[in-house]
Amino acid sequence: MQHVEGVGRADRSDRAGIADRSDLAADCTNCFALCCVGLAFTASQDFALDKSAGTPCPNLAADDRCSIHTGLRGRGFQGCTVYDCFGAGQKLSQETFGGISWRVAPHTAPQMFAALPVMRQLHEMLWYLAEAETLASASALRTEISWSAEETQRLTRLSVEELLALDVAAHRAGVSELLSEVSALTRAGAGGGRKRDRRGADLIGARLRGADLRGADLRGTYLIGADLSRADLRRADLIGADLRDANLAGADLTGAIFVTQTQLNAARGDQGTRIPEGLTRPSHWE
């Protein structure tokens, strides 16, 4: 794990005020393997087989543990290594459903699995909002950020019936607008090339080695297989960017905002890659 330096360090609030995101980290020991059962797989380079939603993965053991966890990549299940529920799995398992597994109460399975994508979206929003609270550049929006986080947290405590009826897309739209404002304030004055707005751009396989992308808006940008080696991504907004198989060797993501562990896990990097504070260097980079 690297510490934020340079422009990124100056843009963070005091360490004592950083929001605790421990509840937004997946805790598989307190989850009923919801992602291994409720989600569908399609045979591809990410998954070695087809699996329909609601059907347990053949690698799932009776104790809700993955029987090939340490060898997922080598066995053709790379997709499992980059999935992150942001803590939605244990929230549903232990709170929404009171710790009663779908194995014990099979009639709850359809609702439990249907609620997973909804809860995951809410927890993902909380992850971004928690980071937004730590950005000194967004201090003018602190009240709005706190209110949005509290409202999103309230929604995670709804009953399963209320969760399934929730218009999560509408709520997400409001959060997204707020995070866009946070992004603009954070990226302002970061420098970078003339084309800083690459939001949603198709940069699949793009040759961006050594590119100056400081303060770039890369929201939702397709960077699959792109060569970003030694690129300068300081204070860039990478929310929702697809970094699958992107080459981040030697790239500088110091102070980059809204980066998730999932994005790093899906990319390729090395010991020279500088990652945002709070994230972990993936083991397969070594």
Please describe what this structure looks like.
Helices cover 33% and strands 0% of the residues. With 286 residues, it is mostly helical. The protein has a domain at 193-286: 3 Solenoid (Pectate Lyase C-like), CATH 2.160.20.80.
Secondary structure layout:
Blueprint: H1 6-10, H2 34-38, H3 78-82, H4 88-96, H5 109-132, H6 142-156, H7 160-165, H8 168-187, H9 261-266
Helix pairs in contact: 4-5, 5-6, 5-8, 6-8
Query: What is the name of the CATH class of the domain at 193-286?
Result: Mainly Beta
Radius of gyration: 19 Å
Overall 3D shape? globular
Oligomer status: single chain
In short:
With 286 residues, the protein is mainly α.
Any key phrases for this structure?
Pectate Lyase C-like, mainly alpha, 33% helix, 286 residues, disordered N terminus, 9 helices
